[in-house]
Amino acid sequence: MMKNTPTTDNFPPGFIWGSATAAAQVEGAAWEDGKEDSVWDAFARIPGNVLNGDTPATAVDHYHRMPQDVALMKQLGLDSYRFSTSWARIRPGGRDVNPKGLEFYSRLVDELLEAGILPWLTLYHWDLPQGLEDAGGWANRDTAYRFAEYAQDVYAALGDRVRHWTTFNEPFCSSLLGYGSGVHAPGRQDPRAAVAAVHHQHLAHGMAVTELRELGAEQIGITLNLSNSIPRDPADPVDREAARLFDSLQNRIFLEPVLRGAYPEDSLKDLEPFGLHDLIRPGDMETIGAPIDFLGVNHYHDDLISGHPDTSGADGHGGGGARPKASPWVGAEHITFPSRGLPRTAMNWEVNPDGLRKLLVRLSQEYPELPPLYITENGAAYDDVVSGEGTVPDADRTRFILDHVQAVSAAIEQGADVRGYFVWSLLDNFEWSWGYEKRFGIIHVDYQTQVRTIKDSGLAYSRFAAAVRNGNSPAPEVPAAAPVG
Ligand code: FCB
């Protein structure tokens, strides 16, 4: 049971309280100062790909409003800002370096440091230059080499000021969703290409880790979206096998190459029909397993898994966007996600904070080689209403965030080495194939005027972080949230 007032105990000294965004979701300025299309610009232009025909072209205009946004971070008292650099801005079309693109990030980093905020940089949050997609994208091994070059460019410009480097954000999404299910850019539905994308992104990660390490980067890691895989009926072999498959595709084919330099044996067998064996060249796995300094964990919901058709009438996994959902579960399309009858967010994702505790404890127990963990994304979409007084009383989101923070605290108590938490997201933004329909921000954005308003959840998060920082003074009461059915 979650307590109504979260405790501030358990968080180790120096615990980082941050917030996150991604370039394609906030920057806008899609073709300014030399930037060319990323796969998301091109994908969003095709009718039917993104809800309401929304595109990332303007987003929340962070490219132009960056100083104001950093001032808001400072007002919230954030320790760190997790952002991503846009490859398509830095190497338009995947070609030569665009100094103007790098300048934007250099100004951002200076602004952050000036405000006392730690920059936490991600090199790839899904926005491949369209020029590289045209040459085969992540299905083409060459893209991994191009990524390593891009990593070096960014390090050359920012390495003197940025200590924390994340190679990839959620490779699951940009490989299996982008190339398998097609609900994400580039929208391909080709299981062999999806598996190739997995392997080539791993390789790109490993090569970038090696390069960045040689160049002198202090803290290098990757962010994975991991989930518990709970068989609907643990006594049913069909459900147990489905849960194994889901765990293999969602978690272990990402965790184990990176942490152990090897694909799990069962995953290798599962993915043999899709060509995984043929993709692995001598030396690849050693490169991929290059030691990292931290693992970022993104978590929004966990899943009950079944191998039987879903009769609950309510897929507990939610998801979708504008396009009919095709399965990203290469070779495991029969997996279903029965509802547990839990409250849901506006994404239709089930709310289960204790799932985060379980996941963190499991990782700590099953992976002795695990580096320190950071929750690099956690948060929730709800339909916000701006009040007559100009406030955004988002009690559901406040409850969600503080309950999950509490789950992190419980995991730490049980031995998980978690050193930071980044709420998703700083600002309402372009939520991929959902367009602007789903709001995750702790700061509300009026998309017509670009006016920003700190939501109540932002204020509560800020107060909670301050309470921890100031020596565990009593944390604020959490407003009761109406259940979302
Ligand atoms: C994650 C993404 C992030 C955001 C949240 C809601 O999968 O990394 O960009 O869209 O989901």
Task: List the helices and strands in order.
Answer: EHHHEHHEHHEHHEEHHHHEEHEHEEEH
Q: Which percent range fits the helix content? A: 25-40%
Distance between the termini: 19 Å
Oligomer class: single chain
- Our count of domains comes out at 1
User: What is the highest CATH level, the class?
Assistant: Alpha Beta
Could you say which small molecules are bound to this protein?
Answer: beta-D-fucopyranose
CATH superfamily: Glycosidases
How many DSSP helices?
16
CATH fold topology:
TIM Barrel
Provide the β-strand percentage band: 5-15%
Architecture, according to CATH? Alpha-Beta Barrel
Rounded to an integer in angstroms, the radius of gyration calculated over CA atoms is 21 Å
Unreliable stretches, pLDDT < 50, 5 or more residues?
480-485
Average pLDDT reading? 94
Class by SSE composition: alpha/beta
Inertia-based shape: globular
Question: How would you sum up the major sheet?
Answer: 8 strands, parallel, barrel
Major β-sheet strand ordering: 1-2-3-4-5-7-9-10
Tally of DSSP β-strands: 12
Region (Disordered): 306-328
Family: Belongs to the glycosyl hydrolase 1 family.
Keywords: Carbohydrate metabolism, Cellulose degradation, Glycosidase, Hydrolase, Polysaccharide degradation
Active site: 377
